[in-house]
Amino acid sequence: MKPTWLLEVKNLVKEFGGVVATADISLELEAGSIVGLIGPNGAGKTTLFNCIAGYYKPTTGKVFFNGKDITDWPAHRVAKMGIARTFQTMKIMPNLTVEENVMIGAFSRTGNRQIARGEAQEILELVGLVREAKVYPTELPIATQKRIELARALATKPKLLMLDEIASGLNPLETKETIQALQRIKEERNLTLFLTEHVMEFIMTISERVIVMAAGRKIAEGTPEEVAREDKVIEAYLGKRYAKGK
Amino acid sequence: MVQVLKDIFSFGDRPLSERIGFVIFIAIVLAFPWFVELAYARAVMIRFLLFALFGLGWNLIGGYGGQVDLGQAKNVGFGAFTTALMTVWWKTPFWLTVPVGMVVATAESFVVAYPMFRLRGHYFAIATLCVALVWKELFTFWDWTGGARGVEIPLKAGADFAYMQFPSPIYYHYFIFFLFITQFLYMNWFRKSKLGYELQAVRDNEEAAASLGINVTVTKVKAYCITAALGAVGGSFMVAYYLYIDPHMVMHIDLSILIAMTVMVGGAGSIWGPIIGAAILIPLDMYLGAWLGGMGLYGIDFMIYAFIIMIIAAREPKGIWGIVERIRKRG
After folding, report:
1. Residue A111 lies in a domain
2. Chain B residue with minimal CA distance to A77?
């Protein structure tokens, strides 16, 4: 019997006016796993995220979530289905307080403000933002704003959480804390994590499995150790000369 | 149910100073006709309350929704013409025409909303302006709406609570105050409702809102329709108050812009903004215009008006309420 994956992407192609951003990407995510997506700039990681989350319509190819075809679903429907995301470039709601930002996420499942607020407070505690609840997010540092986005995404109670460069711009200590926090949240909330990141020590530490993209294609997949040894991966990051010279 | 009632009447989330300020404001408005007997001053007060009411409705789409709608006059017109025509044709009592007017305005808005919300920012603003202009021309051109001659309401003798016709402006004062306070309490509930929060999320960031399961277009359409219904109520009042309407009076572009201006000057997206805006612009409009006009200086009041708006737009995009909040934050 074929196992059903939580997320399955099949031969996904996304072109922008003839420019191929992702070419024939196929991947599967097992429920409960932590999968990293790496690749040099312009590899198509964010495009792939946007195709899965319903922000872009794939040119060809399919996306399945829990066995259901969600390929052409709009973003809000995908979100209600159980896929939450954060954004590479911060998309915080500046005129709502931190707590209200998180409440918006909770409103995706309830119409009751009291329940939404209660859930928001619970999640703020989980990510360590209780003291900032009544503050406006623009007054807070970038690292904190990233945590607000994470909290907001968590408030939709997702099954799959896609984090687009959540650790970029963090110092080594913050990175370490983020890894621990994510692992704890993942266990507590029964999540599957799908992350892209440029910070290697972050992604190689947290991921159970890593998918490598370059120039819109998937070039490697495996455990962090396996992937790090692949010639193709080193080549994609450092160029042919270095890969051969090894 | 209890929670809904609490949300309507509770201002517990606002600072004490604001609550005290609001109580004082209500007290002044309620006592006003007993202390001021000047007919012109009473007329200014009624017009202030009317525009505060218009502002409250517009604040929903323009403030909480962040969509610059420059066509609210069409909804005022729908309300006004529904009330006027139903009164003249079928002698329908005022209070029955109000909900009909709200339904007409909502229905029209629902039809035009979907194509309009394919546009964003300035293009959306232009579209709202155009739709309102088309309706004004149609109402001027059509015979069955009275055309450019307008509609006159048959006079009743004495105070008539079915048709809301009264011999003294004191009645109209409390009449518009009642309508104003109803919409104010509705807005107090709305800003704390799920739709209220979702609308603000859409205003602040559409992509983020969608990632949290919010259907951006549906949210905007809902807000646009509610705004239309709220605007129609003021139109119905104008019929009872002026006993005469024509398209130039209730559907003119100047009205649309004045409604949007009061909110922007006062502070869009804040519960007090429309009241503050109307409290400044309406007396300014009516006194300055009359005073300068009396000296033969026609048009100067518009220049002063425009100057104030330019200053506020350039220095404080969140309006006068934005200034208040900034001072409070610093202090």
Report:
1. no
2. B213
